[in-house]
């Protein structure tokens, strides 16, 4: 297409920021999260990917480590990785960590034209219909589902109804609009790493080398995080 054939809407689409959000417990952050984040950033040509720890995710048990410590480990894990941002905004909000509220904040910050993407793994996506106000998620953002080894999607009728006709074939189709689409991606380095297995290994004194960044391992060991099953009551900071 020549420049003269590009209409105003397409010009806007080309210049609007591309922003991603990857929320999670990050208890602790691991290379499955971080490598997925980098590959997603490149695949969608994002300007920025916000990685956002939830103080208390609504649909799961209490995280093992305090939110401030999980954020600190996330910052250590991201280090100077271009485009990734450890975003502690949910720690400043009272009440449950609803992703729709976080997306609304990002939408307000980046504007109506921004291509806003909420990314999540297949396991989390399977439960999307149970999330708080799931239709609102699509009113605010696109949803990108990352294939995760060992977690095939269990698609319920409610999830099917929620998805409707939203699914698109590829990233460029998704980025034509600011929100409302669904894309499934299989990223190059699919990793069968889970925080549950890392917590188990740390408790048992087994090696976690190459499952998470060395900076995260060092910080977790130095601060004696994840050595027991107990939730820290002393405001443990990583
Ligand atoms: P846990 O084992 O404690 O449930 P987790 O490893 O699943 O933790 P979360 O913090 O719950 O990590 O995950 C945050 C988000 O990252 C979720 O959307 C999850 O599906 C996704 N995710 C986690 N691990 C991977 C992985 N190895 N590959 C792709 N996505 C992942």
From TrEMBL:
Its EC number is 2.7.7.18. CDD domains: NMNAT (cd02165). InterPro entries: Cyt_trans-like, NadD/NMNAT, Rossmann-like_a/b/a_fold. It catalyses: nicotinate beta-D-ribonucleotide + ATP + H(+) = deamido-NAD(+) + diphosphate. One of its GO terms (biological process) is NAD+ biosynthetic process. Pathway: Cofactor biosynthesis; NAD(+) biosynthesis; deamido-NAD(+) from nicotinate D-ribonucleotide: step 1/1. It is an enzyme of class 2 (transferase). Residues 21-201 form the Cytidyltransferase-like domain. GO terms for molecular function: ATP binding; nicotinate-nucleotide adenylyltransferase activity. Pfam families: CTP_transf_like. Keywords: ATP-binding, NAD, Nucleotide-binding, Nucleotidyltransferase, Pyridine nucleotide biosynthesis, Transferase. Catalyzes the reversible adenylation of nicotinate mononucleotide (NaMN) to nicotinic acid adenine dinucleotide (NaAD). HAMAP family: NaMN_adenylyltr (MF_00244). Belongs to the NadD family. This is Probable nicotinate-nucleotide adenylyltransferase. The lineage of its organism: Bacteria, Pseudomonadati, Pseudomonadota, Gammaproteobacteria, Oceanospirillales.
